[in-house]
Design brief:
Blueprint lengths: L1 H17 L16 H12 L6 E12 L2 E13 L3 E5 L8 E5 L2 E6 L2 E7 L3 H6 L7 H10 L7 E6 L2 E6 L11 E5 L5 E6 L6 E11 L2 E11 L2 E12 L21
Antiparallel strand pairs: 1-2, 1-13, 2-3, 3-4, 4-5, 5-6, 7-8, 8-9, 9-10, 10-11, 11-12, 12-13
Length: 256
């Protein structure tokens, strides 16, 4: 009987050792239990170290049928928390948007054309997450239909990433965000709230003035590239004029 038990134990150990070879590899233990812990880790890592103000210009390259359809130059200014002012094709056009207090204001010819409630997921994850308390960030993410209870890991452009919002990183339709595992900044955001999948890549991170900045953003809708943004003339103002984010001042605002 003792000999039989030894043989059975040996066979069991051998089978366990062969599982990876047979395609039954044991999933690695995740560092974080859920998205709440990831958000807390992001905040803890960069609290007091992320840039509160960010000014830049960008080439906005639009695509139709996988071909460039037009290009514009935009001016943008971010200030924490949640404030973003974009001028489309120069201040003189009078066109642009302001994101402020979880609302978006659309302007055409210097006049307000539309206003609606909106939490900007890219602004929230790329900037605000390092300034807002983690529980506030988490609440906004849940409002945007990210399932913080689901988490996985994946490779992304040669680096390890934490995926929040799905347990299967091959799932390209669930709302989810990808965070660089080592540096804890966001590299990808997928949203699917209307049946149309929007996939945004934050690429080409560069270290400028000791700040990590994504200098290329690629937008895809249902797998097709629709917009590419290339950032340049980037700076980190020590202070900004709060009136630049006041919708009533849009027509007269100019920071350059």
């Amino acid at each position: 009987m003792k000999k039989y038990q030894i043989m059975r134990s040996t066979v069991l150990l051998l089978c366990l050792a062969l599982l990876p070879c047979l395609g039954f590899a044991v999933a690695p233990k995740l560092k974080y239990k859920n998205g709440h812990e990831v958000v807390k880790a992001m905040y803890k890592r960069w609290q007091g170290k992320w840039y509160p103000n960010f000014q830049f210009e960008q080439r906005a390259i639009f695509y139709e049928n996988e071909q460039v359809s037009k290009e514009e130059v935009w001016q943008e200014l971010y200030s924490q928390p949640g404030r973003l002012h974009i001028r489309f094709d120069g201040f003189e056009s009078g066109n642009g948007v302001i994101f402020s207090e979880d609302s978006v204001y659309h302007f055409k010819a210097r006049k307000l054309a539309a206003k609606m409630p909106q939490v900007h997921p890219l602004v929230l994850l790329s900037f605000d997450a390092y300034f807002l308390q983690p529980q506030e960030t988490a609440a906004k993410l849940q409002q945007l239909n990210f399932d913080l209870g689901k988490i996985s890991e994946a490779d992304w452009q040669g680096r390890k990433a934490i995926v929040v919002g799905t347990k299967n990183p091959a799932d390209g339709s669930s709302s989810q965000f990808w965070v660089d595992k080592e540096r804890l900044y966001v590299v990808r955001v997928i949203t699917n709230n209307t049946g149309s999948v929007r996939d945004v890549e934050m690429n080409n991170y560069q270290l400028l003035d000791n700040y990590w900045v994504a200098t290329e953003i690629i937008f895809k809708t249902d797998g097709v590239t629709t917009l590419r943004e290339e950032y340049y003339n980037m700076s980190f103002p020590k202070s900004i004029d709060n009136s630049w984010f006041n919708p009533d001042k849009f027509g007269s605002t100019k920071w350059q």
